[in-house]
Amino acid sequence: MKSTRRGFVGGASALAMLSGSTGAFAQKKYSDGATDTEIKIGHCGPYSGPASSYGAIGKTIEAYWKSVNEAGGINGRKVKFITLDDGYSPPKTVEVVRQLVEQEKVLALFQTLGTPTNTAIHKYMNQKKVPMLFVATGASKWGKPKEFPWTMGFQPDYHTEAVIYGKHIVANVKDAKIAVLMQNDDYGRDYFDGFKEGLGKEAGRIVKTVTYEATDPTVDSQIIQLKDSGANVFFNISAPKASAQAIRKAADIGWKPVHYLNNVSVSVAAVMKPAGFDNAQGIITASYMKDATDKQWDGDEEMRAWRAWMGKYMPSANQADANHIYGYAVSFLMHQTLKKCGDDLTRENVMKQAASHQKLRVPLLLPGIFVNTSPTDFYPIQAVQLQRFKGESWELFGDIMHAEST
Fold first, then answer.
1. Closest among 404, 359, 245, 375 to 5, alpha carbons compared
2. Is 156 left (phi over 0), alpha (psi -120 to 50) or beta?
3. Structural domain tally of the chain?
4. 216 with 135, same domain?
5. Are residues 189 and 309 in the same domain?
6. Same domain, 119 and 251
7. Read out DSSP for 336-398?
8. CB atoms closer than 10 angstroms to residue 170
9. How far is it, in rounded angstroms, from Cα 227 to Cα 117?
10. Do residues 109 and 220 share a domain?
11. What is the C-alpha to C-alpha distance for residues 88 and 216, in angstroms, rounded to an integer?
12. Based on C-alpha coordinates, what's the Rg of the chain?
């Protein structure tokens, strides 16, 4: 596949380019968390608990800011990145975010992870008028600037992604009988609503839906129920730990449906390998990022630059874990946003710059996918491509699909 890159320079040179001064700025303006020498960014994520595999994202972000600081910082300022463990527990998220905002006085929150956890701080952050940028969840609620002008998502939203799966099933699976596993929270419901919309008048083909709690030790009983429904299609709306269990259990009991897996669980290292590669063959998902296990990117300039960066800053990390690519890419976007702020590091200007990216090429997004935002569009990425698991990696197929988010 031919890349549509335009002048991207990878690795350390890219960081150095972003870190340099952008010329003469207007009078310096600061909110809490910014000074002549420092930009203080807050983050929390699940370093423990049921979603702890996502802790790899926070560790990647931490390494990214270290590399930025070594390259000179952003317009001469070093980034102080404060990351705390919330265990994927909404009450804990509220506690640590209050600490970040009221005690640490961060300029902004960045990449806080999880739909239920971000929901718990959504109104608080907007009341405090503190940027809550590029949150690590695809819930459609993060793209509503009229109601929540201080919150912006990053990845394609779950609703739109699920619409695509529903349409693909209608077009490609004859006599579909669909079973759905769904995490019992806003994240699961967002996907499920989009899925039904994509199925349209075929929504009656859903023959069984079962839920699980994020804290459940296994989803084995749910998978047995789904198989017993007679379904030949499985839409798997689950986080990595449950996804790996579901894939393995389906194989153990001889259930072989056409399997659609939500994008949040595509990591080869965190999901497919624990599930067993033999058990994962043929699973379909949507993607918007390059995968380090896909050999088509072996000679790719961006992938080579990322591997070199990983070798220097995260030498012991598993490069097959897609969370590291995700963390690097979203950090680049935050880096670019802060760079554009110049010497106006007010919270208002941070949001203004976040909402003014046009056809921004973020390294490691799939060719043809760009970041676009505006004051009325808080969905940075609105395109995906389908991929199928084969061997020990994902293989892309079909065209890039652009969808206006709902």
1. 359
2. beta
3. 2
4. no
5. no
6. no
7. HHHHHTTTEE-HHHHHHHHTT--SB--TTBPTT--B--BTTB--S--EEEEEEEETTEEEEEE
8. 16
9. 31
10. no
11. 13
12. 21
- Within 8 A by CB and 6+ apart from 346, the residues are 29, 30, 31, 34
Evaluate the CA torsion angle 144, 148, 150, 154 in order and state its sign. Answer: negative
Measured CA to CA, the distance from residue 15 to residue 129 in angstroms comes to 29
CB 301 within 8 A of CB 175: no
The answer to whether residues 136 and 68 touch, using CB atoms and an 8 Å cutoff, is no
Closest CA to 355 of 375, 384, 332: 375
Beta bridge partners of 259: 234
Per-position pLDDT tens, the chain of length 406:
333 323 333 444 445 445 444 444 458 999 999 999 999 999 999 999 999 999 999 999 999 999 999 999 999 999 999 999 999 999 999 999 999 999 999 999 999 999 999 999 999 999 999 999 999 999 989 999 999 999 999 999 999 999 999 999 999 999 999 999 999 999 999 999 999 999 999 999 999 999 999 999 999 999 999 999 999 999 999 999 999 999 999 999 999 999 999 999 999 999 999 999 999 999 999 999 999 999 999 999 999 999 999 999 999 999 999 999 999 999 999 999 999 999 999 999 999 999 999 999 999 999 999 999 999 999 999 999 999 999 999 999 999 987 653 3
In whole angstroms, what is the distance from residue 40 CA to residue 108 CA? 7
Please tell me the distance from the alpha carbon of residue 218 to that of residue 201, in angstroms, as a whole number.
33
Give the chain's length.
406
What CATH number corresponds to the domain at position 230?
3.40.50.2300
